[in-house]
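Q: Here's a chain of 326 amino acids. Please give me its 3D structure as C-alpha cells.
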Amino acid sequence: MKLVFMGTPEFAVPSLRRLVGSGWRCLAVVTQPDRGRGRGRKITPTPVKREAEALGLEVLQPQKPTDPSFVSRLEELAPEVIVTVAYGEILPPLVLELPRAGCVNLHPSLLPMYRGAAPIHWAIINGEDTTGVTTMYMNEKMDAGEIILQRKTRISEKDNVKTLHDRLAVLGADLLEETLELIRRGEAPRVPQDDRLATYAPALQREHELVDWNRPARRVVDHIRGMDPWPGAHTFWNGKVLKVFRAEARTGVEPAAGQVQGQGEIPGKVVEVDPDQGFTVATADGGVLILEVQPAGRRRMPAQSFLRGYDLKPGEILGVRPQEGG
C-alpha cells in the first residue's frame, strides 16, 4: 500500500523508521519548514526531515498544507493512505479526501482524553497513572476522528516527559504498523469517539511553567515532572528565574494549610537546606525536596552543586516575581 508520511518532531521518527523498515512504500515525507532554533536561531531541519533524507525519501515542506503546489504534488503521488504523526497542522478537506483509504493519525493519548498539542505533558502534570497511544481516521476537527486501535501504558512516579515520550513513540510505531496492516486487509475498525468524555491538552504557554507552591506536594512534583526536560518548570529566587527539575514529595513538614496563630509554613518558603541532597520548599500540605535546578544563564545541575555556588538560606521565599519584591 502506497503512503505519504507527515510528521515533524522526534516523536514521529520511530514511526517513519518502522514503516520504511517493514517494507511499506513511502512515496514522500511531509514535514514543517526548516526554522531557526536555539539561542543563535540557527536554521535547523526537523528530526523527521533528517530521518527522511537518511532513508533517501523525497521531502516536502509546504508553508501550509493548503498550498496549491503542495496539493498538486500530493495528487501526482496519489497515495492510498496518508499517515500523520505530530505533523503540527490540521489538514484541509481537499487533503483529507485525497487518499482512497483515508488519512490516519497517531496520537499520544487514549482518546478522547487529552486531545490537543501537549498530551504527554498534561497527563503527567495532572497525575494520571495510565496513558497510551491511539490511531484514528482524521476528520476536520482536532483529534476527534473515529478510533482504529489503542494501546495503554502505565505512568510511573519516576516518569518525566522524556521517558514517557520515548516509550510512547515506540509503542506508537508498533500500533501504527498494526493499524496499516488492518487497513490493507480492509479490517480496520471505526469506533466513534464520545465527545462527552473529551479532555484537552493545550499547547504549553509560559504561565504553565510557573510552580504554584500553594498546591499539594504531590501535585507540585507532578507539575515539575510534567515539564522535565522541556520546557522546564520554574519559580523565582532573588528576582530571577530558577528552573526546577527533579523533585520528591516530603513528609514531616508542617502543612501551610494548617497555619494557626503562626503555626505551619508559608507556601514557597525554603524550610531546609541539605548540602548532601538539596533543599525543601513548603507546599499546601507538606514540602517538596528539590533535587535538580537550572539558575538563570547557567546549565542544569544537581541541587547539591547549586547550593555550593549559591547562598540559598532557610526562610527565603521562592516564587516572588521581580515586580513583587519591593
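Q: Can you summarize the key feature?
A: The longest strand covers residues 130-137.
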